[in-house]
Design brief:
This protein is an alpha/beta fold. It has nine helices and nine strands.
Amino acid sequence: MSRTWFITGTSSGFGRQLTEQLLDRGERVAATARRTDSLDDLADRYGDRLWRARLDVTDTAAMRAVVDRAFAELGRVDVVVSNAGYGLFGAPEELTDAQIDRQIATNLTASIQLARAATPHLRRQGGGRYIQVASIGGQIAFPAMSLYHATKWGIEGFWESSAPELAPFGIHVTIVEPGVARTGFGVSNSTLAAPMPEYADGPSGLLRRMLSGELPPLPAPGDPVKIAAAIIASADQPNPPLRLTLGSDAYTQATAALRGRLDALYAGRDLAFSTDADDVAVLATI
């Protein structure tokens, strides 16, 4: 049976790829973007199976209005995809207050507000899916990307906490954690802080030279077509995973980071136990 998807950030990248693949397989898409004319070709090809709305996800009132209108006009939305986002690169000292506020508003607050706007509708209709397109940057961290990582780690915590609250209503959650993919992210969809000479020879300066083409770019093994197909396939599963790690780089880097944190945690085990009150009995040895 055909489903209806609501997707943010559909003008490019994974959002665009998801929209194209879903329409091609006969599903209906409520596509939002800051520039809806970027979807004119799909509207011409697929007609009324593509519902469009202009949306800046940092405008919470507009977000609620668009979500309400989508459910009202389409009758039902089966899958809500929070995809809109971008990268902000630079050392913390190089970033402006406005850049910090915008990064958090787009990558973190907007995803939370989308969930708040859609949840009442999903509850009333008896269930649905949330798919959060996040990043392996929610499990690992690189220098010169501190604010980007802060938003991605934040959204991981939000959804890990929220998923058990939503499960009794038949609402499933999947956090998608892609690695570096060939979407133009970091070049066409990123913001660079103004450089400070003090950081020119550090990670911030190195990343800046890579993005400008002065140095070779980071490898980008991820195929956006395959990643979008894997995201769609996860929504076909009756019990989808909470996390969907996509890309060989994502898997390798997350594995190394998690093992490193576990090793560090175990190294501090005796100190952790030593700070319990004297009347606490140790029930298990880990």
